[in-house]
Amino acid sequence: MAMSDTVSAAPFPGARFGNLLRFAGLGAVALAFLYVIWGLYMAAQPVYAVLTFALGAAIVILYGWSRFYTWRFVFPGVAAVAVFIVLPVIYTSAIGFTNFSATNLLTLDRVQAYHLQRLVKEEGSKRPFALTTAGEIYFPADGDRPALITPPLGSADPLPAEPALSEPETEAMKAVMANRAALQAATVQTPDGQILTMDGLRAFSASAPFYTLQPDGVLLGADGSRLIPNPEIGFYETEEGEKVTPGWRVPVGWDNFRDIARNEGIREPIVQIFLWTFTFAFLSMVLTFSVGTGLAVILEWPHLKGAAIYRVLLVLPYAVPAFISILVFRGLFNQNFGEINLILSQLFGLKPDWFTDPALARTMLLIVNTWLGYPYWMLLIAGFLQAVPKDHYKAAALEGAGPLRCFFSITLPQILPPSVPLLIANFAFNFNNIVLVLLLTRGGPDIPGTLLPAGSTDLLGSFTYQMAFNDSGQNFGMAGAISTLIFAVTGIIAYANFRVMQRLAAKRSAR
Asked: Is 435 part of any domain?
């Protein structure tokens, strides 16, 4: 027994090599994380550096010690949820409490640096120049200022100017034009410490900062003007109270949410888009389910000839990439040259304004979404129908029940319970179906009289996208606030889905 215990306790050579390889891999992972952490720290991103350190430490600890073996199977999923769901949601929600926008992109330090970089030409510092054949900048003698010459362009930064012992051979103005970019980028330092930059095609002159930073943060201009920082709105202001761009990011608390609730130019389009988003998601869910179920029931009819061919043809919209189908429909619904208006015009004398009339644009959106979504439900319901006992239909036929009564009394009650969670998921998907909107209608037609870029067919997701990335103002703060509300609504839908699934599971177990 003792010998067997000794033998079993001795590690195998392969196990030793495996442990060595594992620890070497963990060491490489730790070094890679340290490199990324250092880069984030040097980029002045301490929060991301701490989060990256926590992630790297968790990986090394969990996969380095055997006592945490069971956690290794849970950690990848938890880490993925934290990195790709929780952190983006927290970051987006945090933006909703700031004034982050196209005019408030920078930090206060960068805004100060931007204003301090403004230069003004010093009076009396202008000096004519010429470009020599060797690529040097030559300043002829000017009054009591001696002639100066620099090394060739690009040899140093700044170019030190030394007294010229003789007059060099210079190029014509054509050479100056050819080297204009290099001359504009060049700075010249004179023996007395002045920094000269290009001032037109014939002269260099010294520049000085227009603003100087005072201890209280005020920027004092060379002409006596003052820029006063306002930390509440994130802008420098003149003494008359005018904002000076660019601004910087500052917390604004609940201001964005108050604007959503109180400002009519913001609240009204958001309420309208919110109601349309719910309507669109609900009608899309009902229409795709109804059309898919109807086609699945028809294809299951035993007397239907060529059912396999019909099934293949009807599933084709599901096989074609959605963005291709959407772009094709955009051409079909073209008000002037589309085939749909051409047919309606020939048959009924109608040419609907699909893209300019709000009601017709929304109808078009539902038609296209139904076309894209019914094959999924057709295939799904076809599978559910296989579980419906055929004896029920035989018994109903003996009692004289027709097809409609069989469907509503037998088929629908048995396929609806397993479909409910999927219907809720379908509602949640269409609630954020911004790809369809952006490709088909681009949110149009516009809603008149709004302070934000809002369209009649915009969903909350596409409305937020347009505001954050397509609008000239790029109001990321307002977009973050609206996204926070979308997160809350989607979370409620997900919770409802979870509760419905729990109840269905409880009913099945009770049976």
From this structure: yes
Are 181 and 236 members of one domain? no
**Do 86 and 130 lie in a common domain?**
no
Residues 27 and 142 in one domain: no
Q: Are residues 187 and 316 in the same domain?
A: no
Tens digits of residue pLDDT in 161-184: 999 988 899 988 899 999 999 999
Tokens of 441: 């209608």
Instruction: Determine the Cα angle at 182 with ends 177 and 185, to 5°.
Output: 125
CA distance 176 to 184: 11
pLDDT of residue 473: 66
Q: How many other CB atoms are found less than 10 A from the CB of residue 481?
A: 25
The pLDDT tens digits of the residues spanning 26-39 come to: 888 889 999 999 99
Residue 237 — φ and ψ, nearest 5°? -125, 145
CA distance 146 to 140: 7
Residue 42 and residue 161 in one domain: no
Assess if residue 280 is contained within a domain: yes
C-alpha 198/C-alpha 88 separation (Å) is: 47
Q: How far apart are CA 355 and CA 238, in angstroms?
A: 46
pTM of this prediction? 0.73
Q: Give the three-class secondary structure for 36.
A: helix
- 52 inside domain: yes
d(CA 41, CA 403): 70
Q: Which domain holds residue 140?
A: 119-209
**What is the C-alpha separation between 468 and 101, in angstroms, rounded?**
8
Are 344 and 297 spatial neighbours (Cβ–Cβ below 8 Å)? no
- Please give the structure tokens belonging to residue 467: 């505001």
Pairing of strands 203-209, 195-198: antiparallel
Q: Are strands 187-189 and 159-160 parallel, antiparallel or unpaired?
A: parallel
Which segments of 186-305 does DSSP mark as H helices, in order?
A: 255-262, 264-299
What gap in Å lies between CA 238 and CA 236, rounded to an integer? Answer: 7
Q: Which DSSP helix (H) or strand (E) runs through 226?
A: strand 226-230
CA gap 293, 270 in Å, rounded: 34
253 assigned to some structural domain: no
Distances (CA, A) of 110 to 9, 32, 247, 296: 63, 30, 10, 62
Residues 30, 54, single domain; the answer is yes
137 vs 152: CA distance, rounded Å: 7
Mean pLDDT over residues 333-338, rounded?
91
Looking at the structure, do residues 227 and 315 belong to the same domain, yes or no?
A: no
